[in-house]
């Protein structure tokens, strides 16, 4: 009798392992306990299981930024991470940014400057834009930061560089830049 091949051993290992896991995270201030297939992305868990469809599935390869959310205060592409990796984490989506009757300042600025066209990328743009300002305030440099010892200046080049992972097929970039700049000035 021949010993099992490496393919057969891998298949046997996969069959014997857990296929799903219980995951608990806080999304937009509410705790959620869900049983998920271990292969479920955070994006799919948010959209399919929690019915938070504001976070969009664009490219599903981490290249467009439509799925940007905040996890423990850092922006990530939800399509590139598995939900089981975020057990115990605090997640903020576009739905959690506004108060009951008051838009988030970045949401209002996007409206004020018509920083959207079709609107599909807008939730990811807003989540990234908010994170960009927080990153700059915290002193995280980018590739275009001139002086690493001084507070980071809010310039068009800084904002463009930091938002480069968020694509807008409609080309609303100049208005997105105006919206982010407005919020930055309000915060200063």
UniProtKB/TrEMBL annotation:
It holds the Pfam family Fer2. Keywords: Iron, Metal-binding, Oxidoreductase. Residues 1-20 are annotated as: Disordered. Residues 21-97 form the 2Fe-2S ferredoxin-type domain. SUPFAM superfamilies: 2Fe-2S ferredoxin-like, CO dehydrogenase ISP C-domain like. This is 2Fe-2S iron-sulfur cluster binding domain-containing protein.
């Amino acid at each position: 009798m021949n010993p099992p091949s490496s393919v057969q051993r891998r298949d046997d290992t996969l069959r014997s392992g857990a296929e799903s896991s219980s995951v608990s995270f806080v999304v937009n201030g509410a705790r959620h306990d869900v049983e998920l297939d271990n292969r479920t992305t955070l994006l799919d868990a948010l959209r399919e299981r929690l019915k938070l469809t504001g976070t969009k599935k664009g490219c599903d390869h981490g290249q467009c930024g439509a799925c940007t959310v905040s996890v423990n205060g850092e922006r990530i592409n939800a399509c590139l991470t598995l939900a089981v990796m975020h057990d115990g984490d605090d997640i903020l989506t576009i739905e959690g940014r506004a108060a009951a009757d008051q838009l988030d300042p970045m949401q209002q600025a996007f409206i004020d400057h018509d920083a959207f066209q079709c609107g599909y990328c807008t939730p990811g743009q807003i989540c990234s834009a908010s994170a960009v300002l927080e990153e700059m305030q915290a002193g995280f440099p980018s590739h275009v930061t001139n002086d690493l010892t001084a507070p980071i200046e809010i310039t068009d080049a800084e904002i463009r560089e930091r938002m480069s992972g968020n694509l807008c097929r409609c080309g609303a970039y100049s208005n997105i830049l105006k919206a982010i700049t407005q919020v930055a000035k309000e915060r200063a």
